[in-house]
Records
---
Amino acid sequence: MAAEEIEILDSDGVNRAITRIAHEILEKNKGVEDLVLVGIRTGGAHLAAQLQQKIAEIEGQDVLFGTIDVTLYRDDLASRNNLAVGLTDIPFPLGDRKVILVDDVLFTGRTIRAAMEAVMDIGRPELIQLAILIDRGHRELPIRPDYIGRNLPTARNEQIEVDFDDRNTAQAVHLLRT
Amino acid sequence: MKTLIKSGRVVDPANKIDEKLDILVIDGKIAELAANIDPGDADVINAAGLIVTPGLVDMHTHLRDPGYEYKEDIISGSCAAAAGGVTSVACMPNTSPVNDNLAITKYIINKAQAQGSANVFPIGSITKAMKGGTLTEMGELKEGGCVGFSDDGLPVVDGEMMRRGLEYANTFGVPIFTHAEDLSLVAGGSMNEGPVATELGLKGIPWVAEDAVTARDIMLAELTGAHLHVCHVSTRGSIAQVRHAKARGVRITCEATPHHFMLTDEAVRGYNANFKMNPPLRSQDDVDAVRAGLADGTIDAIATDHAPHHIDEKNVEFAVALNGVVGLETLLPLTLKLVSEKVLDLSQAIALVTCQPADILGIDRGTLTVGAVADMTLINPNKEWLVKADELHSKSKNTAFSGQTLRGYAVRTILAGKTVFER
Amino acid sequence: MTVILLRLFIYLELDVEAISMSFNPKHILGIESLTAEEINFILDTAQSFKEINTRQIKKVPTLRGKTIINLFYEASTRTRTSFEIAGKRLSADTVNISASGSSVAKGETLEDTAKNIQAMHPDIIVMRHNASGSCQYLADRLDCSVINAGDGMHEHPSQALLDALTIREHKGSIAGLTVAIVGDITHSRVVRSNIYCLNKLGARVRLAGPGTMLPPGIEKMGCEVFNNLEDAIRNADVVMMLRIQRERQGAPLIPSVREYARFFGLNGNKMELAKKDAIVMHPGPINRGVELGTAIADGSQNVILDQVENGVAVRMALLYLVSGGEKLKGE
Ligand SMILES: [Zn+2]
């Protein structure tokens, strides 16, 4: 069966979405004070790095940036065949920080549930907000993003893929229909 | 009562016969061998396409009766023998109590005659209770039916005791069967010493544990002039020693088991206790030596060392499992395998399980000579069959060949003219 | 799904190989049956787990609701504790059962004991037993996962893995290294697992010990055998010393501890023979002044505490990996 591939965002589109999210984060949190970005491995981690760079461009100041692997917090261990666990790397305390969780695609919400639990195990942040490049719907948990690059209603059997280049910069977003 | 075995390929090595003949049996004795015997009023058994041999003789079995009837008894053990084409077995004395007195010997013989499906020839112990301390009353035991003496399962540790055993047994013209093992060198080992044991982390038994005692006993046989039979030779060294001793005229014979010419210690990988026996499965080099010994006549007999054990004694950690495997029902196909693998010719192979062990035991079996008792085995040499432990006639299922497809089996086993097993 | 996964590989900095493979064993019985790729996957997984052990709250919910039974037929505080902590940090319920004596003496076979335990529905049994092959025996008969915590003189896979993780951390890579192992080779399951592991990862293994402690045919497992310590550790990258016991199974293997220490103890300036940056390892507990001189036991080259730390991470990885994925009964 041939897959149909539709481009949702090109590299300019991705860049504009990230820029907008960066502005919204700064606006909502009134600057960068106590702000930390935590990207969910692996796509979210790359996007968080891009966001960090964008915020630095806007504010002239670096925000802290960490990555989190949620494999150990997932709820489908017994049915999952790929058991690889990535490194969680948050080399700073999370207590009383404003944590912006970053992921590339929001789908059922289970990954975010796991990520929130992982963050809470590492420290007690003042608040957690969620930034997402693509929200494709089909939530199975009461989770709502604070920052959205693009809302994209999809069918369940469709797939969203975010392409990164070899420097881990998001280049495009595609919808795959099989 | 007359029976005619018609048109079989008769292989009777003692009489150098290998041709298509009819055999007429009258009143349990061989009456005539000839081509095209007129059946007259005889029952006719069609043996066309089959090999007809003297009933097989297994000179080394453990029937476990008396004392360990949960493993095997004379009835089940002789049934297993019949199913394997074996009509005569010699049984080792390590029962409970030990066969070191006339009462036990008589018990075995009477039970076998009354209820058994094979001839059972007891072997008495060399020392009382196999404790190595005092000789048994070999004269009386021989009169009572013992065909030889052995403390099999254990060596006679004391050199002088072994010497006296040989000298005393020789007085009555019966052989001593040595279980050659230096226990101090075994020292808790549970498989052959070598790379496989090292990998598996099991304590090894070195070849020298067998060779050293074999050497001592051969020299004692040479010293005393007595007939020594070495049980279950398994190492290159002990076979070489027997070969040299024979060449210089020592009265020595020996036997090898099918597992020692079919399997190596590689089989122990996986820790299946059905590959645990004593002597242990050895290296390929040793297996080759056993086969060479069979081919050149150094080894006089193939014997099973049939050693039934209850599942609970085998279904444990390898190091604590008991030694031994059953063998009566796989003796024939494994022996024939040596023919198909061109180690032996058919007549040699049959001699190793008929007239040669019978000679060592001094029993009037193992031949189809006119006038001899009509113990016969009718063999389908080409039938392939899968060994299923559960289907063995033995009470114990500890075979090392479970799941293997073997070729050839007895289709009819005849004891003194009467069919005791048929399939 | 595969399309996404394939694209993902391209931009992963870490675990590139790891993610591309699926490894979810039912049991961990030994290193012999593992491939180099699988060993590396376990080590990568363990590496990720190390971060948890440095957190304030050292616990993840991964094995919530799972029951792990540590069935120890031999006393071993260290390994048992390490497995216990590993299980607890993954939120499993861990229960320790100490058994003793040979099964035959008790009248209850190992299978009986195992089936009794199975009736309590554990998910994983971690077993140490004095009989080689006993973990295989258990795995052949039970539905739950079995992890070998040392079976007789056969294997001790978690020890070899934590050793490999420690070497990898200190040396970057294991391929091409020379590792000398000194001591009672015959009775050591640690050695056997390490020979498999190090060979698969491309190291050269040397062994040394008195003749009474070198088992026949060990070189066939892939190692060079020396009868003196000096030749074995010359230019070695790693020197692994084994704990010495004067007697094993009643057999005298060395005349005295004093003489052993003199010829096979790592003491004085013997370490100068090894590479300058060589590390010293020991599966513990050490006999100070016997296989390790005090200067070396307290020296900067020794990484024994790293081994202990990595032990928890490796055991977490093993518990995690046998718990994940769909497993067939009796696989
Ligand atoms: Zn024997």
Note: The first strand of chain B starts at residue 2 and ends at 12.
---
Amino acid sequence: MNTLTQKNWIAFRTILSKEVNRFMRIWTQTLLPPVVTITLYFIIFGKLIGSQINPIEGYSYMQYIVPGLTMMAVMTNAYSNTAASFFGAKFSKSIEEMLVSSMPSSIILLGYMVAGTIRGLLVGMIVLFISFLFTHIPIRYPFVVISIALLSAMVFALAGLINGMLAKTFDDISYIPTFILTPLTYLGGVFYSIHQLHPFWQQISFFNPVFNIVNTFKYGTLGITDSSVVFGFLLILSLFFVLFLWSLHLLQKGIGLRQ
Amino acid sequence: MQALLVKDLRKVYGNGLIALNNINLSVAEGDFFALLGRNGAGKSTTIGILCSLVNKTSGKVFVFGYDIDHELEAAKSCIGVVPQEMNFSQFEKVLAIIINQAGYYGIPKKVALPRAEYYLKKLGLWEYRHNTVLRLSGGMKRRLMIVRALMNEPKLLILDEPTAGVDIELRYHLWDFLTELNQKGTTIILTTHYLEEAEKLCKQVAIIDQGDIIQNTPMKLLINTLDVQTMILDLVKPLSSDIKMNYPYRIIDDTSIEIEINNRQTINELFHVLNEQHIQVSSMRNKTNRLEELFIRLTSKNGILS
Ligand SMILES: Nc1ncnc2c1ncn2[C@@H]1O[C@H](COP(=O)(O)OP(=O)(O)OP(=O)(O)O)[C@@H](O)[C@H]1O
Ligand SMILES: [Mg+2]
């Protein structure tokens, strides 16, 4: 390795371990709440309400909602890790420690993105394990499962980073969860098949990223799908590139960071 | 090689305020440079631009020859900065903060640890290394900012009011510490409102006022431009009559007088006159620090203070 890559590698590892230590240290605020929420979802929607719902495409309602709930946990946790941590650093001004240093913006981006991704995947795995206690979930296509989980964690970690950068107050970092993530999730086929929607809304849903993430993950696990998995995957992949370049641009220009 | 070269630097903040009008500065390698100015003059804005915490509106900045527009990372690796305001994450531990700072510069732990130990001990923070910032006093946090700024062993150290809120003993200690760093080759830029500090430490001085540099000279030259200084003399016995001499003077009370001496006169002459009239002096001091006197004259010409 030449000196520059070596330096960048050390800088990257510094951010990563600092960020992972952060969410591990406050695990009661970062790892525990999603587990509690999801367990409640399983009990209420899966067991209590689900027992009165007919099987969908051969799966019990409980089995049907597990993939969506898992991905919901992945997305929200990847998102909130970067959003809260980056905004927190901005708020305390400790972000300046990174800004004055000689590491390039791309390393800051990668450090935060990977840390958020790790938290998202970690919580996703915990949720999936909990679901195994309630029901049987097959993993039909492990490669699809892993790649869509990874990709969506990265996408939402980047979204959190962008929101954290542009946010001026702590309230601003809840914009994306409230106005984008939650509506898209409820409209995204977590709890029902989008074939139950009016054709117009079905057409719209095909472009909903959350729908495509959930649908691809459902395909990877249960082996069922409401739309083209390839299209869905490519859509999320393009979203990833857009968000990556956008956050890199914001960091390099120092938008929301420098006066 | 110039440690720092600033050309036609201008900063207009988002709200339209012109913080820097047209700044030109050059700091030689190895210099100990004072950047002085009243509150709001533009010191921190200038420093913010040098270490890329503030975007400039126009102008050029070169750090050891590296243009910050094109070789930003190389320029930043030469700089260590102690900001005016605290910028710690309160819940982090002292040692973690500085090891991470080294990490951001790509310095591995095995190099950073001994370096951290050296500087923490030097500034009396070693025993607090496992404390969170939250539990440090104001003066300790200032010192921690200095240690943090030194982790990349910068060739140019920029200190924005490093001794604000630091007690006297510690201030002397910091002065020694900074002088030693400078003697070992680190170029230092310092802002301070304690002009005695600037006079004592710095070889070169620039005064910035309302976004413009109004003075940029060697400290000694600047001090020599002071054409009049005011001395206060304490007398052994109360004055019995007026003093006959051509120095302007004012009686403060029975046993103390204030005398103005211009730079064509010597103190010897003054004492000669006093001796002739049998006036005995028990002590003598400058009314204000010389740099302070100059500073007030220079900056009040330009504005609000007068
Ligand atoms: N973020 C900002 N937005 C708008 N104006 C600003 C901002 N930061 C500073 N200013 C203004 O720019 C001018 C220069 O401020 P600066 O902080 O550079 O002064 P300074 O010389 O460091 O003063 P002090 O001795 O008080 O620290 C001031 O008029 C200040 O009000
Ligand atoms: Mg200032």
Note: The first helix of chain B runs from residue 43 to 50.
